[in-house]
Amino acid sequence: xxxxxxxxxxxxxxxxxxxxxxxxxxxxxxxxxxxxxxxxxxxxxxxxxxxxxxxxxxxxxxxxxxxxxxxxx
Length: 73
What we know:
By secondary structure, this protein is mostly helical.
């Protein structure tokens, strides 16, 4: 009978040992960082102002030239 120290390594046990040692090494290499506090984004005045003006000449011309007035019934 073969003792535990002189037992030959099979394919499965070799693969199991290699994967086990690789996972331990990978877990030790990952730094543990504390989660950071979320910060709100301040868009400022330029991004929150109203841009669409229905009474502007450009908007009225757009709707007039694209035939939206003829679709009113």
